[in-house]
Amino acid sequence: MNNKKIVLFTVVIFAIIVALVLVFNNKGKNESQEKVSLKNLENQPTMGNEDAPVTIVEFGDYKCPSCKAWGERVFPQLQKDYIDTGKAKLTYINVLFHGNESVLAALASESVFKQDPENFWAFHKGIYDAQPSNQNHDDVWVTTDMLVEIAKAYAPNINFNEFKKDIEEKGMFDQVMIDDKLVKDVNVKYTPTLVINGVMLDDPFDYEAIAAQIEKGLKK
């Protein structure tokens, strides 16, 4: 075999190897977009047109700094492009990865949703806004008094005696446990986690991937 044939043969083999690597990488990416079955989303706080063709489910923890960052960096664009336009709706599910404070915040949010669903999302954002920017996971900042102050600012028409009872006596614990079961059913491992039309995304901060999955759902 002369030198030219050797070079050509080498180039062909290299091209085949590159092609195989790309195929297997893409296959891995497709497989990593895990399909999950989400049931019992009724009576969960949902933003957007209830008849929207695409359903986005956010699994979030009010104690989670990454959830706060997602709400500030990704959510506004998502709302503008897809929720406000009626193409997608967003459902929020409480995750309890950070212990008692996660539970307290979840109980409070469920109480507001029960009493004043129209102001749930304002209260929801208010909790994240109150999260200290330099928070460590073990720092204590969620208290009943703090949650009451947020509710006074964003859901002033609720019954505050009932609200405090729902937090201190765990009046909405059954609803929080419904969320916790959903978290376990789909094996949520980190927050925030996004599920779009049953597909669990690898990176909730990758807006291109989020948009691509939504667009895929819109074509069906």
Secondary structure elements and their pairing?
Blueprint: H1 3-32, E1 34-35, E2 46-47, E3 54-60, H2 65-73, H3 75-83, E4 88-94, H4 100-115, H5 120-130, H6 144-154, H7 160-168, H8 173-185, E5 193-196, E6 199-200, H9 207-218
Parallel strand pairs: 3-4
Antiparallel strand pairs: 1-6, 2-4, 3-5, 5-6
Helix pairs in contact: 4-5, 4-7, 5-6
- Overall 3D geometry? globular
Low-confidence region ranges: 7-12, 17-32
Please trace the helix and strand order, writing H or E for each element. HEEEHHEHHHHHEEH
Number of helical elements: 9
What fraction of the residues are assigned to beta strands by DSSP?
A: 5-15%
* Major sheet details: 6 strands, mixed
CATH topology type of the largest domain: Glutaredoxin
Strand order of the largest sheet: 1-6-5-3-4-2
Q: Please, what is the CATH homologous superfamily of the largest domain?
A: Glutaredoxin
Span of the ends, CA to CA? 54 Å
Could you tell me the radius of gyration in angstroms?
Answer: 22 Å
Number of domains: 2
Q: Given the helix and strand composition, which structural class is it?
A: alpha+beta
Average per-residue pLDDT, rounded, comes to: 88
CATH class of the largest domain: Alpha Beta
The CATH architecture assignment of the largest domain turns out to be 3-Layer(aba) Sandwich
What report would you give on this structure?
- The protein has helices spanning 3-32, 65-73, 75-83, 100-115, 120-130, 144-154, 160-168, 173-185, 207-218; strands at residues 34-35, 46-47, 54-60, 88-94, 193-196, 199-200.
- The protein has 220 residues and is of the alpha+beta class.
- The protein has two domains: 3-32; 35-218, Glutaredoxin, CATH 3.40.30.10.
- It has a six-stranded mixed beta sheet with strand order 1-6-5-3-4-2.
- α4 (100-115) runs antiparallel to α5 (120-130) and α5 (120-130) packs across α6 (144-154).
- The model is unreliable at 7-12 and 17-32 (pLDDT under 50).
